[in-house]
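Input chain follows. Return structure tokens only.
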Amino acid sequence: MTYVAANQDPFKAIADPNRRRMLDLMFEESRTVGSLAEALGISQPAASQHMQVLRLAGLVDERVEGRRTFYSVRAVELRTVADWIAKYEAFWTEKLDTLETHLARMKN
């Protein structure tokens, strides 16, 4: 398990496929660690460790109801990742548009 320091950017946190799946599940609805563990087919201690990484990266919110803690995605914190990906998306869109224009000219 990769250690992620508090207030660290989310890139290391989302590098793990289990944590990305946890975020997907929490995006649908708030979840407990137990329900996440069950959905992923992993142990509750493993799910708790993954949750700690997500919490330290600021990617989840907690809501306590009695003895249970529910977690949900703090999507705004993923803006850093989205912004980084957007520049590459723009790059590939431009390249594909250029290719399309080139192929259209070759066809005529």
